[in-house]
Amino acid sequence: MGAEPTVQELRNLVAEFEPGRGHLLPALHRVQETYGYISREAIEVVAGQLDTTPALVYGCVTFYADFRTHRPPQTEIAWCSGPACRLAGGERIREALEHTLELPLGGHSEDDRYGLHLGQCVGTCHESPQVWVNGEVRGRLTAADAIRLAREVKAAE
Amino acid sequence: MNARLQSIIDDARKAWTAERAGGRAKITVTLDTSSIARGAEQTIAAIKEVAAKKSLDIDIGITGSWGLCWAEPTLTVRTAAGTRTVLYANVTADRVEELLEKTVVEGGDLPSLAVGVVEGNATAAIPLLSEHPFMQGQVRRLMANLGTTDPENIDHYLAHGGYEGLGRAFEMGAEAIVKEVLDSGLGGRAGGGFPAGRKWDFLRTATAEPRYLVCNADEGDPGAWVNRVLMEGDPQLIVEGMLIAALAANARWGYIYLRYEYPLAVRRMQLAVDQARQKGLLGENILGTGKDFDLIVFKGAGAYVCGEETGLINSIDGYRGMPRIKPPFPAQAGLWNKPTNVNNVESYANAPLIMRQGSAWWSSVSDAKEKGTKMFTFSGAVKQACCVELPFGPKVRDVLMQYAGGPASDRPMKGFQPGGPLSGVVSADRLDLTLTLDPYRELGLFLGGGGIVFFDESACTVDLCRYFLSFAEDESCGRCTTCRGGTQRAVEVLRRIQSGGGHDGDFERLEGLVRWLVYSNCFHGQFAMTTVKTALKQFRSEWIEHIEEKRCRARVCPGLVAYQVRAQGDPKLAEAKEICPTGAIIEANGKYEIEDAPCIRCGACREVAPSAIELRDLVMAPVAAR
């Protein structure tokens, strides 16, 4: 994940994918895994490669929660929305995170230093309530822990 | 048995025997998403470090889950002689040195961390694992290799009966396979219970070509992780199962649609497919039989409704994952409008067992109408979040006490959710229901994919309904107004009730939505209101309290409760003021007060100053008559 890709780089990246063979999601995953997100240019390139319209590709990008149209923040707190976490106070943790970071779920700071993401349950419910910080589980949190974590993330350079 | 397959199996068995006879002790660590969350990678690093420091000549391996998710990291230690294997739990990195010292160096056990003896004799301190309460009553067939084999090594699978079922399937031919699977009584494992053999026969008798198989590994139900345990623990079982189904239905291609939230499962399934292909078990002219079949691991992108089979098909086809209008059914027109069969992970994974040991053996595990075993995960207000494999039939109360370790606290149980956000809720007075399909159907709900979530009196029924309806609203594909608008409306009404705005007609409003949403096109809309429907019936008095008395007995609903200072002068109050993220705690002349308007009910203040701050019912001031 680095500089903005050129159109040619994007074309090379998805050159192996073909129309009509179920390659849309794999192509979008490839773009996102390489650049961290799917830009407007990438949508056009993928549409061209798969012989479809940018509107259809954009429709898919926005339908699936995994695909991002904005570069990921440096530090991302993903809040687990699962039921075990909910029963253990997860909703209070969401409120605490949103108000401390001053972001809604799905939001990111203006300078992309940090963001808040809605995470789905993966069955590590023994750690509930939990969040992931850049993919790493922080479990058995209290709301106070979440506030301290969010303040730390916000203050870090 | 196909001669080439026999020789592949023989080679794998020889390699396994040679490895065991190597004269080195072996540590086998459970490495899956649950154990990684509890530090298994650090444990492995510590084992390597200690082994190097003490110059220990040991083998280190990885394996799948024992099901003891709450007690990860787990690992087994096998003695150098290969005669004794003991399972240990809670082996965090800081405990590795002591464990290796006691076991590998001194040749003994470490009873304080031991769960049970896997191979060898029990001691006064360590029982046989098979006699451990957690294993009693479990029949680990799908999970047989978990804890033993390396999920990233096909030879381990082949050395433990792997692909013997395929060998038999090749000899039987399509019709006989279908008959064997029909005789077994294997039903769909995502909750429907539709006979797998019949579905395979639909595909077998379809006329168009090519035919496709799809494995629905989009385990989207929050609180369910049975498919993850299987894919991370024994992915070859699914590859072999799909191969057998491909022979039965004469399919050419198979897709494993796997949710992106399971990156380790994606990696291991892909590895399993690659290794099977290298052995000639996938691809063209499989094992010289002339059969062509190949598998594609297809990564989802985060959409619950892709768990609906036609939504999933649209997603692979390259569209938004919006469920189609049936008919035509996938068996006639599925992927690229060609005949397609969609089954759940566990449904396919049972096929190798049925082929290997026969349908009579497979179905004789219990007297229940539902044949075979089922994997379940238990979570929520329990002591032990875990994964087990059981015959159908035990009572919910018994599995709660025996496997999940009972309620998490002294609070009474309030109920449970039998399988996913659309499955409804069951009150605790029905804990004697059995884990079979019918009793739930009779109550208007269903036993889903295996994720059972328990809740106790600290949970609010209205809040749970709002939670599950918000999920259904978020995940609605948007095609049907009934579902899109209906879930949205339900969330509005529930939010209003939660903030103290419940009024006359709310019961009728919600009951109306219950009636109307069943006219949605797909399962998602049809079952979105199940939680509300079942909760309105079983927890009526709690709804009346919310709507008429503006009271939440569990003190969860934000508009019906308030935090207040109970004990001025408590030294913790300054800390409480500091932690408040919205500045709702005001201090003047040493006296603290919580302002209600900015308070977001996160409860952090009470966590840091539990004896100074309390949560009380927010009594609504009566509205003065004009």
Main features:
heterodimer; A: 157 residues; alpha+beta; Arc Repressor Mutant, subunit A; Glutaredoxin; four-stranded mixed sheet; 4 strands; 44% helix; elongated; B: 626 residues; alpha/beta; Rossmann fold; Ubiquitin-like (UB roll); 5 domains; five-stranded mixed sheet
Summarize this, please?
The complex is a heterodimer of chains A (157) and B (626). By secondary structure, chain A is an alpha+beta fold.
Structural write-up:
The complex is a heterodimer of chains A (157) and B (626). With 157 residues, chain A is α+β, with helices and mostly antiparallel strands. Chain A has two domains: 7-63, NADH-quinone oxidoreductase subunit E (Arc Repressor Mutant, subunit A), CATH 1.10.10; 75-155, 3-Layer(aba) Sandwich (Glutaredoxin), CATH 3.40.30. Chain A has helices at 7-13, 24-35, 40-49, 54-63, 83-87, 90-101, 143-155; strands spanning 75-80, 114-119, 131-133, 136-138. A four-stranded mixed sheet of chain A has the order 2-1-3-4, with helices on one face. Chain A is elongated. Chain B has five domains: 21-131, Glutaredoxin; 154-362, NADH-ubiquinone oxidoreductase 51kDa subunit (Rossmann fold), CATH 3.40.50; 373-456, Ubiquitin-like (UB roll) (Roll); 461-549, Up-down Bundle (de novo design (two linked rop proteins)); 559-617, Alpha-Beta Plaits, CATH 3.30.70. In chain B, the strands form five sheets. In chain B, strands 2-1-3-4-5 form a five-stranded mixed sheet, with helices on one face. The N and C termini of chain B lie far apart (90 Å).
